[in-house]
Amino acid sequence: MTDYPVLEKGEFRYLDLGPRDGTPLVLLHGLFGTASNFDALISYFKDKRRIVMPLLPIFEMPLRKLSLGGLLEYVNGFIKEVEIDHMHLLGNSLGGHLALLFAIEDQSRMQSMILTGSSGLYESSFGTSFPKREDYEYIRNKVSLTFYDPEIATKEMVDEVFEIVNNRSKAIRIVKTAKSAIRHNVETKLGEIKVPTLLIWGKQDTITPPFVGEKFRDLIDAAQLFIVDKCGHAPMLEQSEFFNNKLELFLEEVESAKVIG
To answer: How far, in Å, CA of 179 to CA of 54, rounded?
Structure first.
């Protein structure tokens, strides 16, 4: 992750960047703690609007409490602690799943929702088991499958995942969280979400394939979907220019509609 200052307040560790006026953009990262996947987004927006990202305590939360429910409680506590009463909420992968659960529970604090490669309906991931966790090449290939262009999977990224899956405590936490995500299917609840929603999906996403994005679009009332070619599970990283442009236009439309209304 680019060297942004990590702030601490109570039990929370987080990034808080950019101007304080306007509606903040709150980011929720994925299962492997890949906050660095948002580097291009943060760099693009940090001088234009407030960017806030809690670092989810997947490896620190008490194991008995670790679940999507426990992480949602953490996000709720964080939003209250930093006193954000209205926001755009953006999540990738597991972070998207948490954004969905947050919206289902309380949309009153949300001006919009942005999902990219979100779980919650269907996901195919190696996070539920590690059959060859000591095989570096196997892990490298698995990480590469996250992207359309395997070169995006840097050695640093592969090393980080390799360390996680070969640390017994961390591996248990990844598996527990991934299984909790599979149990928390939100299909029957999506009709309750009424906030404007932007969906950006990679055409070559093999973890949450494009049909998942299409189903989210069909089930969420105010949703629009963009599918981007030559892109896997992390469009904000792999197709950052497309992603940032679509996101900027969406936020401007949502905020101008609120002003007009």
So the answer is: 22
Instruction: Determine the residue type at 140.
Output: R
Nearest in space to 142 (alpha carbons), one of 129, 126, 163: 126
pLDDT in tens, 78-122: 999 999 999 999 999 999 999 999 999 999 999 999 999 999 998
Hey, where are the domains in the chain? 7-123+184-260
Helix (H) or strand (E) holding 25: strand 25-28
Secondary structure (DSSP) of 73-133 = HHHHHHHHHTT--SEEEEEETHHHHHHHHHHHH--TTEEEEEEES--SS----GGG--TTT
Q: Phi/psi of residue 15, each to 5°?
A: -100, 145
Select from 3.20.20.30, 2.60.40.420, 3.90.1150.10, 3.40.50.1820 the CATH code of 7-123+184-260: 3.40.50.1820
For residues 230 and 148, is the Cβ–Cβ distance under 8 A?
yes
Element (H, E) at 199: strand 197-202
State the residue for tokens 């196997």: 138
User: What is the b/e burial string over 142-170, where b = at least 16 CB atoms within 10 angstroms of the residue's CB?
Assistant: bbbbbbbeeebbeeebbeebbebbeeeeb
> Which tokens hold the place of 8?
């601490």
Question: Taking a C-beta distance cutoff of 8 angstroms, is the pair 140, 158 a contact?
Answer: yes
The DSSP bridge partners found for residue 224 are 198
pLDDT tens-place string over residues 12-48 = 999 999 999 899 999 999 987 667 889 999 999 999 9
